[in-house]
Write a structure and sequence with these properties.
transport; alpha+beta; Rossmann fold; binds adenosine-5'-triphosphate; Sugar ABC transporter ATP-binding protein; 2 domains; ABC_transporter-like_ATP-bd; six-stranded mixed β-sheet; ATP hydrolysis activity; nucleotide-binding; 9 helices; six-stranded antiparallel β-sheet
Length: 399
């Protein structure tokens, strides 16, 4: 087990800053998932952490020793990429044993180690097959077995399940985690898939445009996002992002959504803290809400219903202004009903299609809702995640 640490890690390719001043510590035996959209620098970060790529600036250490000072073969790293390449003319057993051929290990030892690792990844009965007779999931297991047969101290996986079908992917997720634990290997797993990240990681590191946004246990990062990007990216069921303006008056605060307002309870210390943001434009993020009674509520009309089996997810159009998508050009052109007494001032022109600011509501079965139903959805103060114009969290919880 190895502790890996990055300090000020930066990689610039020509004019692209692929990794931007990343500080990150991975504990011995930890399962860390690097999560982010395509092109955000995940693979580059992984290659830098492994010492495969030289940083433009910054350092990487393994147990305190700069990785550049460790001979590549002594780094004890196993890697599995998305495009695993098995040797087509070798059997599964020969593919797995391949990395041991270069060592002086006796044939019997190699056979025993191949059999043991094949059992570990669930392919003991496939050892005499050739790769062309394997499914995508089975091939990926062989690639993992081949990587792990040397009993590495560090295990790096770059989108290993992208080419595997959905059913096998779910099974392999759990098995990879179990395997990494059993082998007590420090593991860094790169993906753009939030379900993989949430279900596999001890900690998630969210990356955007090469900049590390937040690092923490999946539950914490989901529930307590530091940036609008993290809140929006970890959105399952879909996260609602709505434009709002803060108005303080008479000891209370209203959050003006344009078509309606949320009146925050006066006297609550959180309301008082939010009053400091009087007149600011903010983004209100709401995770899918249960149908609940609360001090505040948003009204809207059900415009779509997704049946998830164990519950329904109702899309409720609250007439709000959807916030600009983070990956879209910053030129929103949505209209909004200016019907509140607080003078919501959208910075948008009124030419384009009407707004469809939606809130997601979780409806337990067998309660039924239909498109066109009007709903009053309770919102608690703790449901409100607010972000400033730069996408930074506005924290107003009591300290
Ligand atoms: N060798 C290179 N030369 C020039 N630019 C590069 C090189 N490698 C990566 N980049 C650029 O650096 C940025 C980050 O790339 P990287 O492959 O690390 O992202 P990623 O998050 O792994 O993407 P994906 O999920 O699509 O694999 C991209 O803009 C990419 O075009």
């Amino acid at each position: 087990m190895v502790a890996i640490a990055a300090r000020g890690l930066t990689k610039i390719f020509d004019d692209v800053v692929a990794v931007d001043d990343v500080d990150l510590e991975i504990k011995p035996g930890e399962f860390l998932v690097v999560l982010g959209p395509t092109g955000c620098g995940k693979s580059t970060l992984l290659r830098l952490l492994a010492g495969f790529e030289e940083p433009t600036s910054g350092t990487v250490t393994f147990d305190g020793v700069p990785v550049a000072e460790i001979e590549p073969r002594e780094r004890d790293i196993a890697v599995v990429f998305q495009n695993y390449a098995l040797y087509p003319h070798l059997t599964v057993a020969q593919n797995i044993g391949f990395p041991l051929r270069a060592t002086a290990a006796p044939a019997a030892d190699i056979g025993a180690r191949v059999a043991a690792v094949a059992r570990n990844v669930g392919i003991a009965d496939l050892l005499s097959r050739y790769p062309e007779h394997l499914s995508g999931g089975q091939r990926q297991r062989v690639a993992m077995a081949r990587a792990l047969v040397r009993q590495p101290a560090v295990f790096l996986l770059d989108e290993p399940l992208s080419n595997v079908d959905a059913g096998a992917r779910a099974a392999l997720r759990g098995e990879i985690v179990a395997l990494a634990r059993r082998l007590a290997v420090t593991t860094i797993y790169v993906t753009h898939d939030q379900t993989e990240a949430m279900s596999m990681a001890d900690r998630i590191a969210v990356l955007r445009l090469g900049v590390l946004q937040q690092v923490g246990p999946p539950v914490d990062v989901y529930a307590d996002p530091d940036t609008l990007f993290v809140a929006a990216f970890l959105g399952m069921p879909r996260t609602s992002l709505l434009e709002a303006a803060v108005y303080a008056q008479d000891g209370g605060v209203v959050l003006d959504l344009g078509s309606q307002v949320l009146e925050l309870p006066p006297g609550d210390p959180r309301t008082a803290r939010l009053a400091e943001h009087h007149t600011e434009r903010v983004t209100l993020v709401l995770r899918a809400l249960p149908l609940q009674e609360r001090d505040m509520s948003v009204r809207g009309t059900v415009c779509a219903v997704e049946n998830l089996g164990h519950e329904l997810l109702a899309h409720v159009d609250v007439g709000g202004v959807p916030s600009v998508r983070l990956d879209a050009p910053v030129a929103p052109s949505r209209a909004v009903a200016q019907s509140t007494p607080y003078g919501f001032y959208p910075a948008y022109d009124l030419v384009d299609a009407p707004p469809t600011g939606e809130v997601m509501v979780r409806i337990p079965v067998p309660v039924q809702v239909r498109i066109g139903d009007d709903l009053d959805v309770g919102v608690g103060l703790t449901d409100l995640l607010l972000f400033d114009r730069a996408g930074r969290r506005i924290r107003f919880d009591p300290v």
